[in-house]
Design a protein that fits this description.
Layout: E1 6-9, H1 15-21, E2 27-33, H2 65-73, E3 78-84, H3 116-125, E4 131-134, E5 146-153, E6 157-162, E7 165-171, E8 179-183, E9 188-195, E10 198-206, E11 213-218, E12 223-224, E13 231-238, E14 251-257, E15 259-265, E16 279-281, E17 286-293, E18 299-306, E19 314-322, E20 336-337, E21 340-344, E22 366-370, E23 388-397, E24 400-401, E25 404-405, E26 407-421, E27 424-440, E28 447-456, E29 463-464, E30 468-470
Parallel strand pairs: 1-2, 2-3, 12-19
Antiparallel strand pairs: 4-5, 5-8, 6-7, 6-9, 9-10, 11-13, 13-17, 14-16, 14-18, 15-17, 18-19, 20-30, 21-22, 21-23, 23-28, 24-25, 26-27, 26-28, 26-29, 26-30
Length: 471
């Protein structure tokens, strides 16, 4: 089969090399960019795992947004690129490690709030005039210090004004953009974009007052009452004039009436707050709450108030619930995982007493073994044909689960096995290889329970080979 299109991850430097060798084959950048930035951050402080959003720092394997799209768009044999990534995501906090907990790659943060890179992409891709200026203009304590101001525009020329005084105009290169270095003075910076000498677009940042209120910004005007719909709502700190305060960091208490708070986030890649908590701190002026209506609710009211800071901030919004039929669905299956087990420290040539007494202080006769999706078989039972071992664990058995009497389910067991619950034998199996096994639980077994399994190897191994659940 002939190669019709060549996919290249990153490595913008080999586009021309490949094209010279195979000019008839077009290229697509199947993974590209991997540039770093934090929403609202304009000073890299490595000791705090913070990275400025000037599109200047990329991964060792990647490139900045500007360098990537310059390489792609200036070559007609490169059809496009898939950017890593649109959204930030939990995990892979490169270039950092713990205590960072999410990626830095996204054009949007974990909440879907735009970083400055979003506007850079908009300028590169859009046909209509785009003008965005960064950073914000709240830099108390830095009066007189030089601040780097950057354009994200697709206009032919751009001019920066500080408190209505021109800091100079620039011819705009779509990929390089333009930078001004200006002394900080509270007030307003304004970027004006020109096409053919006429104003085509503008963007400005103002020094705000301190946070005075919370503004709620629902994603839509209403939410469907179908049992499946959810609504993200941005919670934004604003000053007395209604301007977003980009340096507000207050901790908020979130409440919901007529609905449920599914979770909250603030987009900070270094934040360790519980995503399911009703308390959430603002990060650079905003956070996000996700809500859903209770059954038969006509409205859902989301409220938030600050619990830190000198001034009480508060805000609320009431969202109508649109009446509509429930969407048919199959309920999810709830499973209680039994992961932490004990296994006899030794294997036995003769059948042992399954219910042998266990002292709490006994650290020699038993050892821990974790039972998961791909592990749980002890190495002691490898090539130990005819040998015995005992597994045991403690759990709580519920009488009903998923609308029926609970079942003890073994995804995969191996060998000759006898199963005991609270000292009573409840089943046995003889599996030459790994197979599933289940035990319907009895009503009288509800409550605290000890489960023991006597395992005998009948070939090259035996034991719990995968997950054990109550479902």
């Amino acid at each position: 089969m002939e190669l019709e299109v060549c996919g290249i991850n990153y490595q913008i430097g080999i586009y021309d090399v490949f094209h010279k060798e195979r000019p008839e084959i077009p290229i697509v950048a199947t993974e590209a960019t991997s540039t770093f930035g934090v929403r609202g951050c304009y000073e890299t402080r490595k000791e705090y795992n913070e990275i400025a959003s000037y599109d200047e720092e990329a991964s060792d394997w990647g490139n900045t947004v500007r360098d990537t799209w310059k390489a792609v768009m200036e070559r007609d044999f490169v059809s496009g690129a898939f950017m890593w990534t649109g959204f930030d995501y939990l995990g892979e906090p490169s270039p950092h490690v713990w205590p960072s907990v999410s990626s830095f790659f996204g054009m949007l943060d974990l909440c879907g709030f735009p970083k400055d890179g979003y506007y850079l992409c908009k300028a590169i891709f859009s046909k209509e005039p785009v003008c965005h200026v960064l950073p914000h203009w709240n830099h108390a304590g830095k009066e007189g210090e030089i601040i780097r101001v950057m354009s994200h525009t697709n206009c032919e020329e751009a001019e920066l004004f500080g408190n209505e005084k021109s800091a100079g105009g620039r011819i705009i290169d779509l990929f390089e953009q333009a930078i001004w270095e200006v002394p900080y003075e509270p007030g307003t910076i304004r970027l004006v974009g020109y096409q053919k000498g006429k104003i085509a677009a503008a963007s400005e940042r103002k020094t705000t007052g301190t946070a005075a209120n919370l503004q709620m910004c629902p994603w839509r005007e209403n939410i469907a009452g179908n049992g499946q719909d959810a609504m993200p709502v941005a919670v934004v700190a604003v000053d007395a004039e209604g301007q977003e305060v980009p340096d507000a960091e207050n901790m908020l208490q979130i409440t919901v009436e007529g609905g449920i708070l599914l979770g909250a986030c603030n987009g900070n890649p270094n934040c360790h707050e519980d995503l399911f908590s009703s308390q959430r701190s603002l990060f650079h002026g905003r956070c996000l709450a996700v809500i859903c209506p209770e059954p038969f609710a006509e409205t859902v009211t989301l409220s938030a108030r600050s619990v830190t800071g000198e001034k009480l901030l508060s805000g609320s919004v009431t969202i109508p619930v649109a009446s509509c039929g429930q969407i048919p669905s199959v309920p999810s299956v709830t499973e209680h995982y039994l992961i932490q087990w004990k296994i006899t420290a030794n294997v036995f040539l003769e059948r042992p007493d399954v219910m042998q007494k266990v002292e709490e202080f006994d650290m020699n006769s038993w050892e821990d073994i974790w039972v998961g999706q791909e592990y749980g078989v002890s190495k002691k039972l490898e090539n130990a044909q005819g040998m015995y071992a005992i597994y045991r664990t403690k759990t709580t058995i519920v009488p009903q689960m998923n609308g029926h009497r609970a079942v003890l389910y073994f995804y995969s067991v191996w060998g000759n096995c006898e199963f005991y619950i609270n000292g009573i034998e409840r089943g046995e199996c003889k599996h030459l290889w790994t197979e599933a096994y289940s035990i319907p639980l009895k009503e009288e077994e509800a409550g605290e329970a000890e489960i023991r399994i006597l395992v005998q190897s009948n070939n090259t191994g035996a034991g719990l080979h995968s997950l054990v659940v109550i479902r």
